[in-house]
Design brief:
Chain B: Residues 1-24 form the signal peptide. The complex is a heterodimer of chains A (308) and B (548). In chain A, 75% of the residues lie in helices and 0% in strands. Chain A is mostly helical and 308 residues long. The longest helix of chain A has 36 residues, at 87-122. The radius of gyration of chain A is 24 Å and the shape is globular. The chains are: A mainly alpha (308), B alpha+beta (548).
């Protein structure tokens, strides 16, 4: 297992190099003057352009620029945003908020998604099953910002049950509604995935044998059905954690959450390519680590899976 | 300056906000109960500053609003009339409008106790004017004596060679007379100088800035009625009333918290829920059927601001060069009344000239007959012109309503003139500006102007003088330049007459077509009283009162 982890960690290096190079190239390949949005309705002054060009090494060919970028990154220098923060500082502030939001969203997915999924599978064809199949279809077909606006207006503005936007520091209570909105789409998928997977396992030979042996139904469900059915669900949620940590631009915008999504959105809007590249690099790194963690979790769920 | 205060954001949230605001008419309980509390804390909508909070380096609203709240320059603008009033200055006088004598009020201090003296102005202005500091507001000092020496030109225009490092670090036009007096020598006469120095770029700076600019940019030490006490650009800044402020406009509240929002619809939801006290511009969706007025009865304002939208015809393109007929035809073919009503829901008013109605010297109808929709006459002019299309109108699609406006303009032209006209989308403001700055346009494009200081000159010289920084269409007219120069040297009514005469010349060529003037629609909570919106489009923090 140790060797496996080391091998996976080493594999991250080429992946990271490849993705950062692609992101770097794409960010700077966007047509238009990277400074034009900074100076408004007039060309930027020569001095400003010269200073920025030198700071970002824009006068050098792209591979050389990329080498500078990698070199700085290796030293832990991710650059500075236009308003004078280091990118690392900005990320340090935004990332915990995104992590909190992700935790809330994933909790919804785990508890509601898996819970209702199991319930629906056990009551297959019942009213409950039909009801949740229908609501999950609704959640899948609506874009998240519509759900966000509607819930924000009804539950926040009208009924005052939840705070309308998230305050600074993102207290947990404020994150319940945005977390639910963010989870709504995946929640629906997790629910359906759990249900389908469970139904399949319920038909399996080993389950029939266990029941025939006279094991209590609860134990059969817990030990032989649910545990075996969760692998595809876990794969899905693992991928979702990575995606959620990358920031949720729309939901963060609706509820004014100052997370990674907002940071990236702002940087893209004012063409702050250096920040975009650095933040995405950090996000890529996080996603790779989460993926590794999920793979390791498989072995815990299914003893047949071993890593060496 | 930029469309900077127009803010090119958030179009993606508009559709959702529409659904949201469509059913919210009874959210206002409408009681103004309670008496004003001098310990009250209010919250205001804000966007993330794009630059460090340094006056010479801030040219957009996110940072500008904070700086304007905490700083006081030589003059301040009256919130109602936009007229400049002495603030830090005791007097600003000149006999020839070229050399100005500035006397400061005695005993004014910064919030760290250091004096606001002649040096704090001279040093701040020199820092901004010094080319290698790459300050975004550098060009405001272009009219000062000694500016060229501090900003040498690039010898080969974007070539491999860099501009040489300037030998001088100080404007030769700035001379200290005593601690409370200094003189400013301009390269040419400018009678509007006292109005100009109220702009953000002209605030003074304490020694603390020069000791550590980086720390200063995060938490500026200013000289106005409020000081920055906490916060950052990501979540917002907290401003607290400063007890040491000696001006007459003392704040009537304790604290103003600028909350950073990434979307205006989130801010508007907060206003509706009573979590936000002031929002300077409601989202476009709230303008539909004047929804914001039903949402916040008696707690809104719809006020003209110093912003004008125009369509520029690039004079360097062979399509438009030396041909006034085509501009007249296009201008006559645009139905401004209908478009401002249908696309902007009355948030804009049809323009009748190139100067915003809010400044002194504005004269309605400078554009004459050419700004009135008249398809028949439009066809006559098109028949006389060399270029008969196809036309296109380029716009940046990241601004709210830009797409709809562009399409409406083209449809209007199409229907009136029976020619082809396409709305041409640029993905964002930066991409459009890159092509405009590089003189690559060959058809109509969207342009706009937010005034820097409330003066008629600011709507004319920076935009249409030969070679001016924001003369996007490269229009040039010797008589115009001469009239502006003459007006700059004159004063009062006499100068206005010359500015107006210069403006009238624009209608002869119609190289830039006036479209509409902008208004601002602000809303606020029941807690606020005596709400005034300043010429800088912000809440006047020193006159507002609030209940606890």
């Amino acid at each position: 297992m140790g060797r496996y982890v080391v091998r996976r960690l080493l594999m991250m290096i080429p992946v990271l190099l490849g993705t950062t190079f692609l992101i770097y190239t794409m960010a700077w390949a966007i047509p238009g003057d990277p400074f034009a949005s900074r100076c408004g309705q007039r060309p930027c002054s020569d001095a400003f352009v010269a200073a920025e060009t030198e700071r970002l090494h824009l006068d050098k060919p792209l591979p050389v620029q990329y080498a500078y970028f990698l070199g700085n990154m290796a030293k832990g220098d991710f650059g500075t945003t236009s308003n004078g923060q280091t990118v690392l500082e900005a990320t340090e502030k935004a990332f915990p908020i995104t992590v909190k939001l992700t935790v809330v969203a994933i909790t919804f997915e785990l508890v509601l998604g898996i819970g209702i999924g199991i319930l629906a599978a056990l009551r297959r064809g019942g009213y409950l099953d039909g009801f949740f199949l229908f609501t999950s279809l609704v959640a899948i077909s609506f874009p998240s910002f519509v759900i966000g606006f509607v819930l924000q207006y009804l539950l926040g503005v009208k009924l005052g049950l939840f705070s309308v936007t998230v305050g600074s520091g993102a207290p947990w209570g404020d994150l319940i509604l945005p977390g639910f909105v963010l989870a709504s789409l995946s929640l629906a998928y997790v629910l359906r995935l759990t249900r389908a997977s469970l139904l399949e396992t319920l038909q399996a030979d080993h389950v029939r044998t266990a029941i025939a042996k006279g094991l209590p139904r609860g134990m059969v469900l817990r030990k032989h059905v649910v545990r075996n059915s969760l692998i595809p669900v876990l794969t899905y949620i693992g991928a979702d954690v990575g995606a959620l940590l990358g920031g949720a631009i729309v939901t963060e915008g609706v509820f004014n959450i100052q997370g990674i999504g907002g940071l990236l959105y702002h940087a893209m809007r004012i063409r702050e390519n250096a920040t975009v590249v650095s933040v995405t690099t950090l996000v890529v790194l996080i996603i790779l680590l989460v993926n590794l963690l999920v793979d390791l979790l498989y072995a815990r769920l299914d003893p047949r899976i071993r890593y060496e | 300056m930029k469309q900077r205060r127009l803010i090119a954001a958030g179009a993606m949230f508009a559709a959702g906000a529409m659904a949201l605001t469509a059913c919210s008419s009874d959210s206002d309980s409408g009681s103004d109960g309670g008496s004003a509390d001098s310990n009250a804390s209010i919250t205001l909508y804000s966007t993330k500053p794009e630059n460090p909070l340094i006056p010479g380096n801030t040219n957009e609203v996110g940072g500008g609003n904070i700086l304007d709240a905490v700083f006081r320059g030589l003059v301040d603008y009256d919130p109602d009339t936009a007229a400049p009033e002495m603030s830090m200055a005791e007097s600003i006088e000149s006999s020839d409008n070229k050399t100005w004598d500035v006397k400061l009020k005695a005993d004014q201090t910064f919030q760290d106790g250091t004096p606001v003296d002649a040096d704090s102005f001279i040093n701040a202005w020199n820092w901004t004017a010094y080319g290698p500091n790459a300050a975004l507001n550098n060009y405001f000092f272009a009219s000062f004596d000694g500016y060229e020496a501090m900003n040498p030109a690039d010898p080969d225009e974007d070539g491999p060679k860099k501009a040489p490092t300037p030998k001088v670090k100080e404007l030769s036009g700035l001379k200290k007379v005593s601690d409370t007096e200094f003189t400013v020598k301009l390269a040419s006469a400018q009678s509007f100088f006292p109005t100009m120095v109220g702009y953000t770029a002209f605030y003074p700076l304490p020694q603390a800035f020069f000791d550590d600019p980086e720390a200063y940019g995060k938490k500026p030490i200013a000289n106005g009625p409020f000081q920055v006490t906490a916060g950052d650009g990501d979540s917002g800044f907290t401003l607290t009333a400063w007890s040491g402020y000696k001006g007459e406009d003392k704040p009537k509240i304790k604290e103003a918290i600028y909350k950073t929002y990434t979307s205006d619809s989130a801010g508007y939801s907060d206003v509706l829920a009573g979590n936000l006290d002031f929002m300077n511009q409601v989202p476009a969706a709230a303008l539909v059927d004047n929804q914001y007025q039903t949402d916040r009865p008696d707690h809104f304002v719809n006020k003209a601001v110093g912003v004008i939208q125009t369509a520029t015809l690039p004079q360097y393109s062979k399509n438009f060069k030396d041909d006034p007929n085509v501009g007249k035809a296009l201008s006559l073919a645009i139905d401004r009344d209908t478009i401002t009503k249908s696309v902007f829901n009355g948030g804009r008013t049809p323009a009748t000239g190139w100067v915003s109605p809010i400044v002194d010297g504005y004269k309605a109808g400078a554009c004459g007959e050419f700004c009135t929709y008249d398809p028949a006459k439009a066809k006559e002019y098109l028949a006389k012109s060399n270029f008969k299309g196809p036309f296109s109108f380029s716009y940046n699609s990241d601004g709210q309503g830009n797409k709809e406006a562009a399409e409406a303009i083209c449809n209007s032209i199409k229907n009136a003139l029976d020619v082809e006209c396409n709305a041409k989308s640029y993905v964002d403001f930066a991409t459009l500006r890159a092509d405009v700055n590089a003189s690559k346009m060959d058809n109509m494009f969207r342009s706009g102007w937010q005034m820097d200081y409330p003066h008629i000159q600011n709507f004319l010289e920076p935009l249409y003088a030969t070679g001016a920084g924001s003369n996007d269409g490269h229009w040039s007219n010797k008589n115009f330049d001469a009239l502006i120069k003459k007006a700059n040297a004159a004063e009062g009514e006499e100068s206005y007459a010359d500015y107006q005469a210069a403006e009238a010349l624009l209608s002869e060529d119609m190289a830039v077509i006036p479209l509409w003037y902008q208004a601002q629609q602000s809303v606020w909570s029941e807690r606020l009283g005596n709400v005034k919106v300043t010429p800088k489009s912000t809440l006047d923090l020193t006159s507002v009162t609030a209940t606890s």
